[in-house]
Specification:
This protein is an alpha/beta fold and 436 residues long. Helices cover 32% and strands 22% of the residues. The N terminus is likely disordered.
Amino acid sequence: MTTTAVEASAGTTDRGARMYELIKELYPICRSITGRGVRDTLAILKRSIPLAIAEVPSGKAVFDWQVPDEWSIRDAYIKNSSGERIVDFKKCNLHVINYSRPVRRHMTLAELRPHLHSLPDNPDWIPYRTAYYRDTWGFCVTHRFLERLADDTYEVCVDSELKPGSLTFAELILPGQSPAEVVVYSHTCHPSLCNDNLSALAVATLLAESVARRPRRLTYRFIFGPTTIGSITWLALHESHVDRIRHGLILASLGDRGGLVYKRSRRGNAEVDRVIEYVITRSHGGRCVDFSPYGYDERQFCSPGFNLPVGRLTRTPNGQYPEYHTSADNLDFISPQALERSLQACEAICVALELNARFLNLSPKCEPRLGARGLYQNITGRNPSEFEHALLWVLNQSDGTQDLLQVAIKSGLDLTLIAQAAQALEEAGLLGRCSD
Protein backbone atom coordinates (compact mmCIF):
# COMPACT_ATOMS: atom_id res chain seq x y z
CA MET A 1 0.00 0.00 0.00
CA THR A 2 1.43 3.41 -0.92
CA THR A 3 1.56 6.44 1.35
CA THR A 4 -1.01 8.18 -0.85
CA ALA A 5 -3.32 5.18 -0.67
CA VAL A 6 -3.05 5.05 3.11
CA GLU A 7 -3.95 8.72 3.44
CA ALA A 8 -6.86 8.47 1.01
CA SER A 9 -8.43 5.41 2.60
CA ALA A 10 -7.96 6.70 6.14
CA GLY A 11 -9.87 9.87 5.43
CA THR A 12 -13.05 7.93 4.61
CA THR A 13 -13.33 6.07 7.94
CA ASP A 14 -14.75 6.84 11.36
CA ARG A 15 -11.52 5.90 13.12
CA GLY A 16 -11.20 9.33 14.71
CA ALA A 17 -14.57 8.87 16.39
CA ARG A 18 -13.58 5.38 17.51
CA MET A 19 -10.34 6.63 19.08
CA TYR A 20 -12.25 9.43 20.80
CA GLU A 21 -14.71 6.93 22.28
CA LEU A 22 -11.83 4.75 23.49
CA ILE A 23 -10.30 7.79 25.22
CA LYS A 24 -13.69 8.60 26.73
CA GLU A 25 -13.84 5.11 28.24
CA LEU A 26 -10.29 5.31 29.61
CA TYR A 27 -10.56 8.87 30.90
CA PRO A 28 -12.08 8.19 34.38
CA ILE A 29 -9.51 5.52 35.34
CA CYS A 30 -6.95 6.50 37.98
CA ARG A 31 -3.64 5.39 36.50
CA SER A 32 -0.16 5.57 37.97
CA ILE A 33 3.22 3.98 37.27
CA THR A 34 1.92 0.81 38.96
CA GLY A 35 -1.35 -0.63 40.08
CA ARG A 36 -4.89 -1.52 39.12
CA GLY A 37 -5.46 1.52 36.90
CA VAL A 38 -2.73 0.40 34.52
CA ARG A 39 -4.08 -3.15 34.43
CA ASP A 40 -7.64 -1.96 33.84
CA THR A 41 -6.40 0.26 30.99
CA LEU A 42 -4.47 -2.56 29.33
CA ALA A 43 -7.48 -4.88 29.67
CA ILE A 44 -9.53 -2.38 27.66
CA LEU A 45 -6.84 -2.07 24.98
CA LYS A 46 -6.60 -5.86 24.86
CA ARG A 47 -10.16 -6.01 23.52
CA SER A 48 -8.79 -4.50 20.29
CA ILE A 49 -5.28 -5.96 20.03
CA PRO A 50 -3.79 -9.20 21.48
CA LEU A 51 -1.46 -7.78 24.11
CA ALA A 52 0.93 -9.89 26.16
CA ILE A 53 1.00 -8.59 29.75
CA ALA A 54 4.21 -8.62 31.81
CA GLU A 55 4.57 -8.05 35.56
CA VAL A 56 7.94 -7.02 37.03
CA PRO A 57 8.18 -7.35 40.83
CA SER A 58 8.80 -4.43 43.15
CA GLY A 59 12.38 -4.10 44.25
CA LYS A 60 13.91 -5.47 41.05
CA ALA A 61 17.05 -3.54 40.14
CA VAL A 62 16.84 -1.90 36.70
CA PHE A 63 20.11 -0.08 36.05
CA ASP A 64 20.34 2.75 38.63
CA TRP A 65 16.66 2.35 39.59
CA GLN A 66 14.43 -0.14 41.36
CA VAL A 67 10.89 -1.10 40.45
CA PRO A 68 8.87 0.76 43.11
CA ASP A 69 6.27 -0.55 45.49
CA GLU A 70 2.80 -0.73 44.02
CA TRP A 71 0.41 2.12 44.86
CA SER A 72 -3.31 1.64 45.22
CA ILE A 73 -5.94 4.15 46.31
CA ARG A 74 -9.51 3.55 47.33
CA ASP A 75 -10.70 6.99 48.40
CA ALA A 76 -9.50 10.45 49.37
CA TYR A 77 -11.22 13.59 50.53
CA ILE A 78 -11.13 16.77 52.58
CA LYS A 79 -14.15 17.51 54.77
CA ASN A 80 -14.93 20.78 56.51
CA SER A 81 -16.18 20.98 60.08
CA SER A 82 -19.76 20.49 58.81
CA GLY A 83 -18.82 17.09 57.42
CA GLU A 84 -19.11 18.24 53.77
CA ARG A 85 -16.67 16.76 51.26
CA ILE A 86 -15.16 19.86 49.75
CA VAL A 87 -12.45 17.94 47.87
CA ASP A 88 -13.39 14.50 46.56
CA PHE A 89 -11.08 12.06 44.77
CA LYS A 90 -14.11 10.16 43.49
CA LYS A 91 -15.23 13.21 41.52
CA CYS A 92 -11.78 13.94 40.05
CA ASN A 93 -8.78 11.68 40.53
CA LEU A 94 -6.39 14.56 39.81
CA HIS A 95 -7.30 15.91 43.27
CA VAL A 96 -4.80 13.55 44.91
CA ILE A 97 -1.06 13.75 44.32
CA ASN A 98 -0.16 10.48 42.62
CA TYR A 99 1.59 8.10 45.03
CA SER A 100 0.41 9.99 48.13
CA ARG A 101 1.04 7.94 51.23
CA PRO A 102 -1.96 7.18 53.48
CA VAL A 103 -3.12 9.82 55.94
CA ARG A 104 -6.20 10.26 58.15
CA ARG A 105 -6.27 13.16 60.58
CA HIS A 106 -7.86 16.46 61.55
CA MET A 107 -5.87 19.62 60.97
CA THR A 108 -6.16 23.37 60.86
CA LEU A 109 -6.02 25.33 57.64
CA ALA A 110 -2.47 26.38 58.48
CA GLU A 111 -1.45 22.73 58.82
CA LEU A 112 -3.30 21.70 55.67
CA ARG A 113 -2.19 24.56 53.45
CA PRO A 114 1.35 23.24 52.63
CA HIS A 115 -0.27 20.06 51.26
CA LEU A 116 -2.52 21.91 48.79
CA HIS A 117 -1.37 22.69 45.24
CA SER A 118 -2.99 24.98 42.70
CA LEU A 119 -2.34 27.02 39.54
CA PRO A 120 -2.54 30.77 40.21
CA ASP A 121 -2.20 31.56 36.49
CA ASN A 122 -5.14 29.27 35.63
CA PRO A 123 -7.33 29.53 38.73
CA ASP A 124 -10.13 27.24 37.50
CA TRP A 125 -7.91 24.27 36.60
CA ILE A 126 -6.71 21.44 38.83
CA PRO A 127 -3.01 20.58 38.42
CA TYR A 128 -1.66 17.05 37.99
CA ARG A 129 1.19 16.33 40.42
CA THR A 130 3.14 13.21 41.40
CA ALA A 131 5.33 12.10 44.30
CA TYR A 132 6.52 8.71 43.07
CA TYR A 133 9.73 8.49 45.08
CA ARG A 134 8.95 10.75 48.05
CA ASP A 135 7.29 9.93 51.34
CA THR A 136 4.62 12.61 51.23
CA TRP A 137 0.98 13.29 50.42
CA GLY A 138 -1.09 16.13 49.08
CA PHE A 139 -4.14 17.39 47.23
CA CYS A 140 -4.51 19.41 44.04
CA VAL A 141 -7.29 21.99 43.85
CA THR A 142 -8.29 25.00 41.81
CA HIS A 143 -6.68 28.23 42.91
CA ARG A 144 -10.10 29.84 43.15
CA PHE A 145 -11.13 27.15 45.65
CA LEU A 146 -7.91 27.61 47.61
CA GLU A 147 -8.44 31.35 47.96
CA ARG A 148 -11.93 30.78 49.41
CA LEU A 149 -10.91 28.25 52.08
CA ALA A 150 -12.10 29.30 55.51
CA ASP A 151 -10.07 29.14 58.70
CA ASP A 152 -11.60 25.88 59.86
CA THR A 153 -10.69 22.43 61.16
CA TYR A 154 -10.59 19.89 58.33
CA GLU A 155 -10.80 16.13 58.20
CA VAL A 156 -8.21 14.82 55.75
CA CYS A 157 -8.22 11.28 54.38
CA VAL A 158 -6.05 9.55 51.81
CA ASP A 159 -7.07 5.91 51.84
CA SER A 160 -4.10 4.56 49.91
CA GLU A 161 -1.59 1.76 50.23
CA LEU A 162 2.02 1.31 49.22
CA LYS A 163 3.30 -2.25 49.33
CA PRO A 164 5.37 -4.70 47.28
CA GLY A 165 3.62 -5.60 44.06
CA SER A 166 4.71 -5.16 40.46
CA LEU A 167 5.07 -2.85 37.51
CA THR A 168 2.87 -3.78 34.55
CA PHE A 169 3.59 -3.30 30.87
CA ALA A 170 2.19 -4.87 27.71
CA GLU A 171 3.58 -5.75 24.29
CA LEU A 172 2.33 -6.74 20.88
CA ILE A 173 4.86 -8.14 18.42
CA LEU A 174 3.90 -8.30 14.73
CA PRO A 175 6.57 -10.39 12.97
CA GLY A 176 7.79 -9.35 9.53
CA GLN A 177 10.03 -10.91 6.91
CA SER A 178 13.01 -9.37 8.71
CA PRO A 179 13.81 -9.52 12.44
CA ALA A 180 14.73 -5.81 12.25
CA GLU A 181 12.27 -4.05 14.55
CA VAL A 182 10.22 -0.89 14.63
CA VAL A 183 9.45 -0.09 18.29
CA VAL A 184 6.40 2.06 19.10
CA TYR A 185 6.14 3.11 22.77
CA SER A 186 3.27 4.93 24.49
CA HIS A 187 2.90 5.58 28.19
CA THR A 188 0.12 4.27 30.40
CA CYS A 189 0.64 6.09 33.69
CA HIS A 190 -1.28 9.38 33.59
CA PRO A 191 -4.75 9.62 35.16
CA SER A 192 -7.51 11.52 33.37
CA LEU A 193 -5.32 13.41 30.91
CA CYS A 194 -6.71 13.05 27.40
CA ASN A 195 -3.97 14.50 25.23
CA ASP A 196 -0.90 13.77 27.33
CA ASN A 197 -1.38 10.03 27.58
CA LEU A 198 -4.68 8.73 26.28
CA SER A 199 -4.41 10.12 22.74
CA ALA A 200 -1.21 8.14 22.17
CA LEU A 201 -2.71 4.94 23.61
CA ALA A 202 -5.65 5.26 21.21
CA VAL A 203 -3.49 6.06 18.16
CA ALA A 204 -1.03 3.25 18.96
CA THR A 205 -3.88 0.75 19.33
CA LEU A 206 -5.41 1.54 15.96
CA LEU A 207 -1.97 1.77 14.35
CA ALA A 208 -1.24 -1.75 15.59
CA GLU A 209 -4.51 -2.93 14.05
CA SER A 210 -3.59 -1.26 10.76
CA VAL A 211 -0.05 -2.69 10.66
CA ALA A 212 -1.37 -6.17 11.50
CA ARG A 213 -3.64 -6.16 8.43
CA ARG A 214 -0.92 -5.73 5.82
CA PRO A 215 2.21 -7.60 4.68
CA ARG A 216 5.34 -6.51 6.54
CA ARG A 217 9.01 -6.50 5.68
CA LEU A 218 9.86 -5.21 9.17
CA THR A 219 8.85 -6.54 12.59
CA TYR A 220 6.79 -4.19 14.76
CA ARG A 221 6.86 -4.14 18.57
CA PHE A 222 4.20 -2.04 20.29
CA ILE A 223 4.96 -1.37 23.97
CA PHE A 224 2.48 0.12 26.45
CA GLY A 225 4.10 1.00 29.77
CA PRO A 226 4.60 3.75 32.34
CA THR A 227 6.84 6.62 31.42
CA THR A 228 10.47 6.71 32.59
CA ILE A 229 10.50 3.71 34.96
CA GLY A 230 8.57 1.68 32.37
CA SER A 231 11.02 2.22 29.53
CA ILE A 232 13.98 1.86 31.90
CA THR A 233 12.56 -1.47 33.07
CA TRP A 234 11.85 -2.65 29.53
CA LEU A 235 15.39 -1.77 28.41
CA ALA A 236 16.92 -3.50 31.43
CA LEU A 237 14.97 -6.67 30.64
CA HIS A 238 15.72 -6.53 26.90
CA GLU A 239 19.28 -5.23 26.87
CA SER A 240 20.53 -8.20 24.84
CA HIS A 241 17.76 -7.62 22.31
CA VAL A 242 18.14 -3.93 21.47
CA ASP A 243 20.47 -4.49 18.52
CA ARG A 244 17.37 -5.55 16.58
CA ILE A 245 15.81 -2.10 16.93
CA ARG A 246 16.25 -0.33 13.59
CA HIS A 247 13.64 2.37 14.14
CA GLY A 248 11.73 3.62 17.16
CA LEU A 249 8.96 6.09 17.84
CA ILE A 250 7.58 7.44 21.09
CA LEU A 251 3.97 8.58 20.73
CA ALA A 252 2.44 11.26 22.96
CA SER A 253 0.04 14.23 22.84
CA LEU A 254 -1.57 13.40 19.49
CA GLY A 255 -5.10 14.69 20.01
CA ASP A 256 -4.78 18.47 20.27
CA ARG A 257 -5.25 20.92 17.44
CA GLY A 258 -1.59 21.86 17.00
CA GLY A 259 0.55 20.74 14.08
CA LEU A 260 2.68 17.61 14.17
CA VAL A 261 6.14 17.95 15.74
CA TYR A 262 8.82 15.29 15.40
CA LYS A 263 11.73 15.28 17.82
CA ARG A 264 14.76 13.63 16.24
CA SER A 265 16.69 10.87 17.90
CA ARG A 266 19.98 11.61 19.64
CA ARG A 267 21.74 10.47 16.47
CA GLY A 268 20.01 13.29 14.60
CA ASN A 269 20.24 11.74 11.14
CA ALA A 270 19.12 8.16 11.68
CA GLU A 271 16.97 6.61 8.97
CA VAL A 272 13.87 7.02 11.11
CA ASP A 273 14.67 10.74 11.50
CA ARG A 274 15.01 11.21 7.76
CA VAL A 275 11.90 9.17 6.94
CA ILE A 276 9.67 10.97 9.43
CA GLU A 277 10.93 14.39 8.38
CA TYR A 278 10.17 13.49 4.76
CA VAL A 279 6.66 12.24 5.59
CA ILE A 280 5.41 14.90 7.98
CA THR A 281 6.93 17.96 6.30
CA ARG A 282 5.96 16.88 2.80
CA SER A 283 2.41 15.65 3.38
CA HIS A 284 1.26 16.56 6.87
CA GLY A 285 2.37 20.14 7.50
CA GLY A 286 4.63 19.07 10.36
CA ARG A 287 7.99 20.26 11.57
CA CYS A 288 11.07 18.70 13.17
CA VAL A 289 13.13 19.73 16.19
CA ASP A 290 16.49 18.49 17.42
CA PHE A 291 16.91 16.02 20.25
CA SER A 292 17.06 17.24 23.83
CA PRO A 293 17.28 15.12 27.01
CA TYR A 294 13.94 16.44 28.31
CA GLY A 295 10.66 14.88 27.30
CA TYR A 296 9.27 11.36 27.34
CA ASP A 297 10.77 7.90 26.98
CA GLU A 298 13.01 8.85 24.06
CA ARG A 299 15.38 9.99 26.85
CA GLN A 300 15.89 6.40 27.91
CA PHE A 301 16.15 4.80 24.46
CA CYS A 302 18.54 7.59 23.42
CA SER A 303 20.70 7.50 26.56
CA PRO A 304 24.38 7.24 25.57
CA GLY A 305 24.68 3.60 26.61
CA PHE A 306 21.99 2.66 24.08
CA ASN A 307 21.86 5.60 21.62
CA LEU A 308 19.04 3.91 19.71
CA PRO A 309 17.38 5.47 16.64
CA VAL A 310 14.23 6.47 18.54
CA GLY A 311 12.43 9.78 18.05
CA ARG A 312 9.18 11.23 19.36
CA LEU A 313 6.01 12.30 17.58
CA THR A 314 3.53 14.71 19.16
CA ARG A 315 1.30 17.51 18.15
CA THR A 316 2.00 20.33 20.60
CA PRO A 317 4.99 19.08 22.64
CA ASN A 318 4.81 18.53 26.37
CA GLY A 319 4.93 21.70 28.46
CA GLN A 320 4.18 23.92 25.45
CA TYR A 321 0.42 24.24 25.93
CA PRO A 322 -1.19 25.66 29.09
CA GLU A 323 -3.54 22.70 29.51
CA TYR A 324 -0.58 20.33 29.92
CA HIS A 325 -0.78 18.35 33.19
CA THR A 326 -4.02 20.01 34.26
CA SER A 327 -7.71 19.15 34.40
CA ALA A 328 -8.14 21.24 31.24
CA ASP A 329 -6.52 18.39 29.29
CA ASN A 330 -9.96 16.86 29.02
CA LEU A 331 -12.32 15.52 26.36
CA ASP A 332 -13.00 19.04 25.09
CA PHE A 333 -9.30 19.66 24.45
CA ILE A 334 -8.89 16.86 21.92
CA SER A 335 -10.76 16.14 18.70
CA PRO A 336 -11.53 13.07 16.58
CA GLN A 337 -10.17 14.94 13.55
CA ALA A 338 -6.76 15.52 15.15
CA LEU A 339 -6.61 11.88 16.27
CA GLU A 340 -7.42 10.73 12.72
CA ARG A 341 -4.74 12.96 11.20
CA SER A 342 -2.20 11.69 13.72
CA LEU A 343 -3.05 8.09 12.87
CA GLN A 344 -2.75 8.82 9.15
CA ALA A 345 0.71 10.30 9.70
CA CYS A 346 1.81 7.26 11.73
CA GLU A 347 0.55 4.92 9.01
CA ALA A 348 2.38 6.94 6.35
CA ILE A 349 5.58 6.73 8.42
CA CYS A 350 5.27 2.94 8.64
CA VAL A 351 4.65 2.70 4.89
CA ALA A 352 7.73 4.83 4.18
CA LEU A 353 9.88 2.72 6.51
CA GLU A 354 8.68 -0.38 4.67
CA LEU A 355 9.44 1.13 1.25
CA ASN A 356 12.87 2.47 2.11
CA ALA A 357 15.80 0.18 1.37
CA ARG A 358 19.30 0.16 -0.12
CA PHE A 359 20.10 -1.54 -3.41
CA LEU A 360 23.18 -2.42 -5.43
CA ASN A 361 23.21 -1.93 -9.18
CA LEU A 362 24.14 -5.34 -10.64
CA SER A 363 24.92 -3.85 -14.06
CA PRO A 364 26.82 -0.74 -13.00
CA LYS A 365 28.97 -0.13 -16.09
CA CYS A 366 26.92 2.25 -18.20
CA GLU A 367 23.15 2.01 -18.42
CA PRO A 368 21.65 -1.41 -19.06
CA ARG A 369 19.18 -1.81 -21.92
CA LEU A 370 15.90 -1.04 -20.20
CA GLY A 371 13.85 -1.25 -23.39
CA ALA A 372 14.98 -4.82 -23.97
CA ARG A 373 13.55 -5.68 -20.56
CA GLY A 374 10.24 -3.95 -21.19
CA LEU A 375 11.02 -1.11 -18.79
CA TYR A 376 11.42 1.71 -21.31
CA GLN A 377 9.04 2.96 -23.97
CA ASN A 378 9.79 1.62 -27.45
CA ILE A 379 9.25 4.92 -29.24
CA THR A 380 11.09 7.77 -27.60
CA GLY A 381 9.95 11.36 -27.51
CA ARG A 382 11.51 14.51 -26.22
CA ASN A 383 11.43 13.46 -22.54
CA PRO A 384 11.23 10.14 -20.71
CA SER A 385 8.20 9.50 -18.51
CA GLU A 386 8.30 10.16 -14.77
CA PHE A 387 8.61 6.41 -14.14
CA GLU A 388 11.50 6.18 -16.58
CA HIS A 389 13.14 9.08 -14.79
CA ALA A 390 12.76 7.10 -11.57
CA LEU A 391 14.38 4.04 -13.18
CA LEU A 392 17.40 6.10 -14.23
CA TRP A 393 17.75 7.73 -10.82
CA VAL A 394 17.57 4.42 -8.96
CA LEU A 395 20.10 2.76 -11.26
CA ASN A 396 22.50 5.65 -10.97
CA GLN A 397 22.34 6.00 -7.20
CA SER A 398 22.22 2.32 -6.21
CA ASP A 399 25.81 1.81 -5.14
CA GLY A 400 24.90 0.16 -1.83
CA THR A 401 25.32 3.37 0.18
CA GLN A 402 22.22 5.34 -0.87
CA ASP A 403 18.74 4.39 0.29
CA LEU A 404 15.58 5.03 -1.70
CA LEU A 405 14.62 7.99 0.46
CA GLN A 406 17.88 9.72 -0.46
CA VAL A 407 17.18 9.00 -4.13
CA ALA A 408 13.66 10.43 -3.79
CA ILE A 409 14.95 13.62 -2.16
CA LYS A 410 17.75 14.08 -4.71
CA SER A 411 15.48 13.46 -7.68
CA GLY A 412 12.44 15.34 -6.39
CA LEU A 413 10.33 12.28 -7.19
CA ASP A 414 7.89 10.67 -4.79
CA LEU A 415 9.26 7.85 -2.59
CA THR A 416 6.43 5.58 -3.71
CA LEU A 417 7.41 6.02 -7.37
CA ILE A 418 11.08 5.46 -6.57
CA ALA A 419 10.18 2.26 -4.70
CA GLN A 420 8.09 1.04 -7.63
CA ALA A 421 11.04 1.65 -9.96
CA ALA A 422 13.36 -0.24 -7.63
CA GLN A 423 10.95 -3.17 -7.50
CA ALA A 424 10.76 -3.29 -11.29
CA LEU A 425 14.54 -3.21 -11.61
CA GLU A 426 14.95 -5.88 -8.94
CA GLU A 427 12.46 -8.15 -10.74
CA ALA A 428 14.42 -7.58 -13.98
CA GLY A 429 17.60 -8.78 -12.26
CA LEU A 430 19.28 -5.37 -12.40
CA LEU A 431 19.26 -4.59 -8.68
CA GLY A 432 20.20 -6.55 -5.60
CA ARG A 433 18.69 -5.66 -2.23
CA CYS A 434 21.17 -4.92 0.57
CA SER A 435 20.49 -6.55 3.92
CA ASP A 436 18.81 -4.59 6.74
